[in-house]
Amino acid sequence: MSEKKRVGRPRARPVDEAESAPDAILRAARTLFRQQGLKATTTRQIADAAGLRQPTIFHYFPNKLEIVREIASQALAPELAFLEAEAERSADPPERLYRYAHFVVTNLVSNPYVIGSPLQFPELTPEAFNDFFTGYERIFEALKDILREGMAAGVFLDLPLEVTTRQLFALIEAGLQAERLDPATAERVADNAALLVLRSVLADQTHIERIREDARG
């Protein structure tokens, strides 16, 4: 008896048996969102790119919005976990600033779930993505807290806090413009960015290499 040929939509790529259906959906969605934005991407396109039939998507995600929500959550998760760990760690503001910038940049250039700045996607509204924007604000406020403590202690230049925080946050987020990088390149980019951030506000530049070594120790 001959084996029946499986009926279904033509697959856009061979099926990777090691990749689960949800992972395939999220991978395909991330690629399409980067290439053509959220609004222009359809669930049918995501299914084709994932090598799945469209109904399979709705088994795991009820709509495109939930796919976006999961990607946004996974993009921020490492940074939020980092902040939790740093809260248990005792360090001076310069060391904390280096570590903060280094980790955030590393996440931005290596985390596959990071698809761009929220400003690139007008569909990402605070009303629809409250959890994401709450987390995003926590990351911003953590930088402000480090700068505030460093300025109060005299180890950072006495600069306007809000403006300086926004400028340095924008500098750190410049990593969003980069493609996903391999670990070695990501490390070099993160180290350079962290040193640039530190030099921007450090009052005494004499011991910057020691601060870097302590932060990485």
Would you write up a description of this structure?
The protein is an all-alpha fold. The chain has two domains: 11-62, Arc Repressor Mutant, subunit A; 72-216, Tetracycline Repressor, domain 2 (Orthogonal Bundle). It is built from nine helices and no strands. It has helices at 21-36, 43-50, 54-60, 64-87, 93-110, 130-153, 161-172, 183-201, 208-216. Helix 5 packs antiparallel against helix 8 and helix 6 crosses helix 7. The radius of gyration is 21 Å and the shape is elongated.
Features:
217 residues, mainly alpha, Arc Repressor Mutant, subunit A, Tetracycline Repressor, domain 2, 2 domains, 63% helix, 0% strand, elongated
Helices and strands in order:
Layout: H1 21-36, H2 43-50, H3 54-60, H4 64-87, H5 93-110, H6 130-153, H7 161-172, H8 183-201, H9 208-216
Largest β-sheet summary:
none
| Proportion of residues in helical segments | 55-70%
Structurally, how many domains make up the residues? 2
Helices and strands: which structural class?
Answer: mainly alpha
CATH homology superfamily of the largest domain: Tetracycline Repressor, domain 2
Mean of the pLDDT scores? 90
Low-confidence stretches: 1-12
Report the β-strand fraction as a percent range. under 5%
How far apart are the first and last residues' alpha carbons, in Å?
A: 66 Å
Q: Give the CATH class of the largest domain.
A: Mainly Alpha
Q: How many strands in all? A: 0
Shape: elongated
The SSE string, one letter per element, is HHHHHHHHH
CATH topology of the largest domain: Tetracycline Repressor, domain 2
In short:
The chain has about 220 residues and is mainly alpha-helical. Helices cover about 65% and strands about 0% of the residues. Helix 4 runs parallel beside helix 6, helix 5 runs antiparallel to helix 8 (about 185-200) and helix 6 (about 130-155) crosses helix 7 (about 160-170).
